[in-house]
Specification:
Elements (H helix, E strand, L loop, with lengths): L4 E5 L11 E7 L3 H5 L2 H9 L6 E7 L22 E5 L5 H11 L15 E5 L1 H5 L10 E3 L7 H14 L3 H4 L4 E2 L27 E4 L11 E4 L1 E2 L10 H4 L4 E2 L2 H14 L4 E5 L9 H10 L3 E3 L12 H6 L4 E7 L3 H6 L6 H13 L4 E8 L5 H18 L4 E8 L15 H14 L5 E4 L2 H12 L4 H9 L5 H8 L3 H9 L2
Parallel strand pairs: 2-3, 2-4, 4-5, 5-6, 9-12, 12-13, 14-15, 15-16, 16-17
Antiparallel strand pairs: 1-8, 6-7, 10-11
Bound molecules: iron/sulfur cluster (SF4).
């Protein structure tokens, strides 16, 4: 179990006489979920760059019906001029609504006035489809925030003097429920090297050292977007084009981050970091400086001999995402990797000293789930047979269609996926560990990721209940899977 953190470093403090504008950065999930990603650290840094604007963090309270408060000054949501919500996952919409309800802030934009905070929502979930929450927020932000951050802070200062938010409304990427339309394109940061990036990242200090990958490391963003275009994936579709930081920029961030964040452990952030043009040089730099690093999921066709370098670092586990057990299906959904490449990469990893491999699969990429199940079982049996000393952790997720991707308009057969999951569990060898994301929650995510404004009252009612699957059933007045089919399948 993770020990409790005892304090945080790099927390912003500003003299109250200078502050004339307060922003609450709301992450509508727990502290540990929020602080295990880059978004809170990055936004907290960017939104504190104006000396007269103080931004504090607010997470979902641990206990039910507790009024949410900021971490920095224990202020309630109503005490802020602006509440900026970051949504990484659609299910957090319900938490956000609960937080507003508990704070007695009227949910709909039309019911609020200038005595209430300005409400803004952003993040990947919102960029892909803001419709389920667009009537709640004064503005939704569509895209990546870095390049617009300073203009946004200046616009807030102007709006304070003019007593309206016209200066925010004209900024690129900001839309109200009236101005947003399906043709909107996300704002992207053109040159990552030129935008402000935190080297003094806010992070907790624990009473005991944390496991690798804990919350106490430095988050190093290597790239944004992805050069590949897998048909089900949001990153490769909406955050285009693929952009990389230069090697010299990354080296500077590593040196400064090591000192200012007081951490020797670097988590590399990016969709496909092994594809980074200078990955070997980057890893060599970590080794030379005797710094630890963690790579996220690796593409097996990255074409670079990084396995030896990774093993030199002492890293013993790797993650790959075959997504499906069939080469043909993989190519059909845009992931151009063969089973032979996966088998060969795994054996090389094993020989390089990697003892544990996490493998990610998606069920529901085709209309023949039974064949998908068999292909996954066959591929895993093959990997295990060739690498009997290796430990495998298999993660299986039912497909969640994302708006804007090629699967956005597909009707997913969740009943078949449920059956497929049962037979997969039976067919996998007992020495393979696996974890399955529950199909019923994938259905709910699917509803939230492709649904529209009709969902706001549904979520409003749901937030007064306990958030369980039963609560969804009660609120929708029908099984969510039936609701999904009735409303989003032709
Ligand atoms: S699934 Fe991975 S490789 Fe494919 S587009 Fe998404 S991030 Fe890129």
């Amino acid at each position: 179990m993770r020990s409790k953190w005892v304090k945080e470093i790099n927390v912003f403090k500003k003299p109250s006489r200078l502050i004339n504008w307060r922003i609450g950065l709301v992450y509508p999930n727990s502290y540990s979920v929020g602080m295990s990603g880059l978004s809170v650290k990055l936004l907290y840094h960017l939104l504190n760059q104006h000396q007269n604007i103080f931004t504090e963090r607010i997470f979902k309270p641990k206990e039910k019906n507790v009024i949410p408060q900021s971490l920095e000054t224990q202020s309630a949501l109503t005490h802020f001029n602006v509440l900026a919500f970051s949504f990484q996952f659609e299910l957090d919409y319900i938490n956000a609504i609960k937080m507003l309800q508990t704070s007695k802030i009227p949910l709909y934009t039309k019911d609020r006035n200038t005595s209430h905070p300005l409400l803004i929502a952003g993040g990947p979930a919102v960029t892909a489809n803001p419709n389920p929450i667009i009537d709640i927020f004064d503005f939704v932000f569509i895209g990546e925030f870095e390049s617009i951050a300073n203009k946004f802070l200046e616009a807030l200062v102007v709006s304070k003097n003019s007593e309206n938010y016209d200066s925010v409304a004209v900024l690129p990427g900001f839309y109200s429920s009236d101005s947003y339309g399906e043709a909107v394109k996300p704002i992207v940061t053109e040159n990552l090297n030129e935008v402000n990036y935190p080297t003094a990242q806010v992070r907790p200090i624990y009473s005991q050292p944390q496991r690798k990958g804990g919350l106490d490391g430095y988050f190093l963003q290597v790239s944004r977007g992805c050069p590949h275009g897998c048909h089900y994936c949001l990153i490769g579709k909406i955050f285009r084009p693929h952009r990389e930081r230069s090697l010299s920029n990354l080296k500077q961030l590593i040196i400064s981050g090591n000192i200012e964040t007081q951490s020797n452990h670097f988590s590399l952030i990016g969709s496909s970091t092994a594809d980074y043009s200078n990955i070997e040089e980057l890893i060599s730099f970590f080794l030379q400086k005797e710094l630890r690093f963690t790579l996220p999921s690796i593409r097996v066709d990255s074409g670079k001999d990084i396995l030896n370098l990774i093993s030199q670092s002492g890293q013993k586990s790797l993650t790959i995402a075959p997504e499906t057990g069939s080469t043909e299906t993989r190519f059909t959904v845009g992931k151009r990797i063969t089973n032979e490449q996966i088998v060969s990469f795994t054996s090389q990893a094993n020989q390089s000293g990697i003892s544990q491999l996490k493998t990610y699969f998606i069920l529901g990429l085709t209309s023949n789930v039974e064949a998908e199940v068999k292909a996954i079982g066959d591929l895993m049996a093959n990997l295990k047979q060739k690498n009997s000393n290796m430990k495998f952790n298999i993660s299986i997720t039912p497909l969640v269609p994302k708006k804007g991707t090629k699967f956005g308009n597909h009707c997913i057969d969740y009943a078949s996926i449920s059956e497929g999951v049962k037979s997969l569990k039976k067919s996998l060898s007992s020495d393979l560990k696996y974890k399955v994301f529950p199909t019923r929650w994938a259905v709910i995510q699917a509803i939230l990721s492709i649904g529209g404004r009709e969902l706001t009252p549904v979520m409003e009612e749901l937030a007064t209940r306990d958030g369980s699957y039963q609560a969804w059933k009660k609120t929708l007045r029908v099984d969510p899977e039936v609701y999904y089919r009735q409303n989003y399948c032709d």
